[in-house]
């Protein structure tokens, strides 16, 4: 996923710390994020650029984990709100 480090660092504490504190990734042109699927990565990149994201029952759990990992508090609250409004008794244990 092609994107700008300055956008990522400006919108996300995780990337801010990664790129501006001298970590290994700060000098690289490519960062590999094995913990996040490509589909979730695309959604998150669009979110960081636009502030908009479509949360669905198919992506909600991946978005929750990724927003927690990337320190995206606003997105995590949106995801948690979605989960609360869509929870059903038969699914609550797995969530």
Automatic annotation (TrEMBL):
Pfam families: BTB (PF00651)
Keyword Repeat: yes
Keywords: Kelch repeat, Repeat
SMART domains per the UniProt record, alphabetical: BTB
Domain BTB, chain residue ranges per copy: 1-57
InterPro entries found in the cross-reference section: BTB/POZ_dom, SKP1/BTB/POZ_sf
Domain of life: Eukaryota
Keyword Transcription regulation (UniProt): no
Protein name: BTB domain-containing protein
Classification lineage: Eukaryota, Metazoa, Spiralia, Lophotrochozoa, Annelida
């Amino acid at each position: 996923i092609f994107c700008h480090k300055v956008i990522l660092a400006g919108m996300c504490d995780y990337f801010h710390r990664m790129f501006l504190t001298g970590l290994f990734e700060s000098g690289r042109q490519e960062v590999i994020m094995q913990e996040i699927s490509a589909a979730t990565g695309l959604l998150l990149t669009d979110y960081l650029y636009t502030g908009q994201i479509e949360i669905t029952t198919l992506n909600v759990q991946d978005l929750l984990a990724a927003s927690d990992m990337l320190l995206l508090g606003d997105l995590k609250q949106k995801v948690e709100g979605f989960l609360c409004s869509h929870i059903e008794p038969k699914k609550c244990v797995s969530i």
